[in-house]
Fold each of these.
Amino acid sequence: MTAAFEVMREPAERGRFGDYGGRFVPESLVSACEELDRSFHKAWGDPHFRARLDSLLRYYGGRPTPVWECARLGDQLGIRLLLKREDLNHTGSHKLNNVIGQALLAEQMGKTRLVAETGAGQHGVATATAAALFGMECMVYMGAVDVERQELNVFRMRLLGAEVTAVESGSRTLKDAINEALRDWVATAATTHYCIGSVMGPHPYPFIVRELQRIVGEEARSQCREVLAGGDPDVVVCCVGGGSNAAGTFAGFVDTGARLVGVEAAGGAAMHNGVPGVVHGMRSMFLQDEDGQILEAESISAGLDYPGIGPEHAHLGKIGRAEYVDASDDEVLAAFRLLAETEGIIPALEPAHALAWVVREAGRSIPKGSAVLLTLSGRGDKDVALVMSRSARQPELDSEGRRP
Amino acid sequence: MSRTELERSLRRQRDAGRKLLVPYVTGGLGPDWLLAAEAAAAAGADALEIGLPFSDPMIDGPVIQRASVAALASGATPAGILSAVSSVDLGIPVAVMTYYNIIARAGHKRMANLLAEAGVAGAIVPDLPVDEAEPWLAAAAAAGIETVLLAAPTTTDARLKEIVTRTRGFLYAVGLMGVTGERAELASTAADLAARCKEVTDVPVLVGVGISTPAQAAQVCAVADGVVVGSAVVHRLLDGEGPEGVSRLVGEFRTALDS
């Protein structure tokens, strides 16, 4: 159980990251997980597979994404602030890195259909995109509550040829969408690949998704060295729902001296308020009551509305290699505006959590003059309407642009 | 009630030529779930499965999902359900069906003792595959709780060997690739898997998932030692047919299996 393994490389036997991870699935899914594990290891060691993936990410996805130094905002905060611009990927977030890799893997396994869960819709849109590109069928499960909140993304997925099912069971949000995707996969694994959206679920998913997102951290590391005259950042910070952009980013810096920080939504802070549990195929940290019933996460950002966290993060937190903090909705909205106003970049609400923490800590636990790398995991277009409706609670400007 | 060893009891019935019938009732579902359990026992069940509902029942179909949500919404807890179970004498062994997080949260040893104290004989934990089961199996065995393991149509021969070695009480053969729920036809995988299981073990082999009608039960019992009937029973309760409806349904299964 505690067999030695290198941090952020292969998990130990039975998919363990220390005490966390594993494969807690119904017997009916064991063979599908084993097939996936074998296929991924074969593909990942195959130069032809890697070349195809690199080519797709480059010419279809738009990689490499740049690292941008925020001169104005950095000055204001008294730090050097570098953004890894994953928002510039095709479909607008880091999610594409993962789905292109998994779709390619699905094709190699001879699968003709993808199923996915989605919260805000980013992973659903990315999966629908990959399915269109690969000529596969696509079914996206989305909590009925999220379908109502994110109707534009639902329409996007349908434009891309995917079927979207509104999940009415349980709390009708992301965790229930995952349950429904797993239920689909149990019955369809012979022809279907479950394209999971984050570093979570049963082994080998947390490992596969981290490896597919590793490119974020590896690119950023060499890009930071160009900007920082050969040095590494002092702090590397990412938002964490399940934690895939953070896992990919941390993987590039785990062997440097950088302080690694994951920022959860205050209403979904599984590391702070959760306890160890076993849900969705993995042992990790979950918000739950004293009987083990899973609680709903609540956040302004549907992408962080998950009551758990990827098992490798639970491990990195436990061994102290990464720290996990949280940001409130109000701090996040302020950070969202700040980046728009000072840098001309509208971030997704998810990475605005990471920025909110930086704004709070600059000059405190982040000493003046520190170099901070923040993964801007997605663009904010999807959130503009939500932010607008929140802002509408403030008095409207009158016809002459004054507040009454 | 006094604890009856699940496997010993099922073997005795099976060896006497009887096909085994194990209905499932979601604990805490409505005011009369315990009466429904008693009705099922009286109508010819050989053992009973009582569900300890979980917020995220990922291998359950719509019927058990609805029942779980309803039970939890009305305040059902593992402690409350076990207390109710311990207050009656069903006359047949009881196994709980629950998800692993309910056990992990309570703690292996504590949950095993709670079950034993409530007079429960067995536990079925569908999201705990044999490779992850050891810590629970040890704690359960120490408290005298028999843990029923599951085999699926896609289970390899090598895994099946391991599963039949470790299972206690009976072997739960999952009849089809999919979630729990009623199906119009008996899946061809059901009898195939039952036959594979029967070849490698003498432990009673019961088929569950997708056994919806007495005719399907009789059909699969040409090979299997018995059936687990879940959604069909719970469906009656959700429809408001109460203990009488459950009694009628279990009676029909009993008649089909006996003829």
Amino acid sequence: MNVRIAGIDADRQAKVAARLGQLLPEASVLHHQEDTRPYECDGLSAYRELPMVVALPASEGEVQAVLKVCNDLNVKVIARGAGTGLSGGALPSREGVLLSTAKMGKIIHVDPVARVARVQPGVRNLSITEAAAPYGLYFAPDPSSQIACTIGGNVAENAGGVHCLKYGLTVHNVMRVRGVTIAGEVIELGSEALDAAGYDLLALAVGSEGMLMVITEVTVRLVPKPELARCILAAYDDVEKAGNAVADVIAAGIIPAGLEMMDQPATRAVEEFVHANYPLDAKAILLCESDGTPEEVAEEIERMTEVLRKSGATEIRVSRDEAERLKFWAGRKAAFPAVGRISPDYYCMDGTIPRKRLGEMLHAIARLEKKYRLRCPNVFHAGDGNLHPLILFDANDPDELHRTEQFAAEVLELSVAYGGTVTGEHGVGIEKINQMCVQFSPEELEMFRGVKRAFDPPGLLNPDKNIPTLRRCAEYGKMHVHRGQLPHPELPRF
Amino acid sequence: MTDAVNSLVETIRAAAEAGRGLRLRGGGTKDFYGQALHGAVLDTRGHAGIVAYEPTELVVTVRGGTRLTELEATLAEKGQMLPFEPPHFGADATIGGAVAAGLSGPRRQSAGALRDFVLGVRILDGRGQDLTFGGQVMKNVAGYDVSRLIAGSMGTLGLILEVSLKVLPIPVTEATLQLELPQDKAIEIMNRWGGKPLPVSATAWTDGDLWVRLSGAEAAVRAAREKIGGEVVDDAGAAAFWTALREHTEPFFRDAVPLWRVSVPSTTAALEVPGEQLIEWGGSLRWLTTGADARVIRELAARAGGHATLFRGGDKAETGVFHPLAPAVARIHANLKREFDPHGVLNRGRMYPEF
């Protein structure tokens, strides 16, 4: 029998490391535990596994080399950007190679006239905006981890943020992706024109969680930075009224740049933490942002204010300057860490529902709080119907953990029942893989497997994530965040 | 399942069993588009009607056989629209056909393409399986984005039973300006505007004139009019122009055979080929009517980083309608076709002769 350390087959490890070592510099192939330990989990730290080998290719050619070896030796490959993902998409395998894009962090070219940037996958989201800023341009998707997360990861997860309603998700802001298949072939999907010949394979690649190809280059669309942004803070004495106000804004023909909602338990937790000066007696607050030219913003803020007042807001504040606008947002953006302070653990959900069901969902969550005897503050990307309810629990109490899992399962199943989805922006990864069985039929899941086969016939790229096997569909997943400690505590999470 | 769906399922199953091809057809307004048509016609119009529409959700779910005019009228009653302005190419166009063709109109440069607004689809695959992907919500990352794959797949992967689309409010104000400019100057200025926070929603250069449509808040449109200059076109004339552009009834498109659709990066210089050109989408879309050799046009497009489609006329069999694919990408196409339609029932060869 082979020697196993941390479940890793030492002979196989030596063989894979040796083969990769022939093609990559010595420092780019890691297999000692002390070197591979930092890669054992991503932002979903409840799941951990040591990778057999870590490879750090520095170029497309090296990515090709790694994939050819893995294909040859029938080894799984799990790609990883900054490891900030919240669904365990980059969870390694003790039988696999963890391919980190950390050494591919170059901004290749920014073209301010064509308004595109061509970058390597390891470039951080915010760096793109920083590189475009001198030209008055920026990259619109702004996931909360944007100071750390990479564009490769954003593409793999179809990352969102707080401005999606107006500016779209990653899929709307990526023009072209270049990558390598498991066979080691380079493919280009999309183009720097506005479309490409053939099937929209770019759409499949975005959000594919590293299961179809390894991304080596991305062309993103840059958009002009709005001259001005202002934000309204509106308070409500009833959550359902706040939910309806969201619908009223849209019905008035307004598409806000951001439209966020927090309930009272969330605002109270936040207020203690960041002192955003939120009205604490309100049952819910809305943040409603307008951006554009000064003329546009003035006109829109006036219309928004009128709609929010009619919808029964008990208080309306309009940011007078940039400092105040940022203060309004500071509270919303601190929601996750603030909740992490008031509870030993919390479980974050990511369902999306039609906006009209917001009120209903909030009542259902209140009912479930009683049923499971657990608290659940709520923060929403209300404009998109994307919910992040946070169930508070103590993982040291096995019964609480069990109740939390049941609570979360009910909420996600309700999201599907309301015509929504189990994940709006965090991805399926390993975390929600069982809930996929609730959302899709066996035939639909089989078609997803067919899509994977079309790109990756041997099934070696990040298998065991995103798309469950039918056998798996009998079980249910576990996830929690221990003591509010995300692996990147310095990052805002919203 | 309704009778209409049952009958579609039965037809597809029978064809799959017999190994017969079917030609999916809505109003038939886009019969001209794509490779030669094969197989018995399967009319999709029996499955029509709006399934759900709530303006405050900004989402409409509609059956594939529904007429585009009916859908657009329903949205307009509530002050909303299909932001990608799909071309109809005839009164009988259906939404299923529009999604299958994947074509977008003038507003594509600012609002996004048809595929950007597809939130979910319900399809029948080549085995007759009733499958739903995506949904009715704005954000959805569960599974692969099959809905967007279906957009523009020319009916080769599935028959579109239902589609859910994001819709947007009709802009409060629109204004169209006309500036006399040579082609190279027009390309330059369209790109310059693109980098500024201006409410430009559509542009077109034809016959020495650059047309610019501004859409948005009244104050923003007014301010942009000052910055851009040119002559203001009256509302009726403007509406007629943008519709004629979208529907290819503009003088440029009359008798434009063969007509090439060349999609390139917006900053690409004026294409040096004999014949006439019309430019849209801020410089990204070039329509050519030319007798030049297909290889020359494809080479020009590829060198610029784009692709060329033989949109109307010409020798389709000889030239191929769509730009040739790189071998590795072509293989993925063939694999996908096999997964969705293992018996080759659906619009076989409509996109590429190989599948």
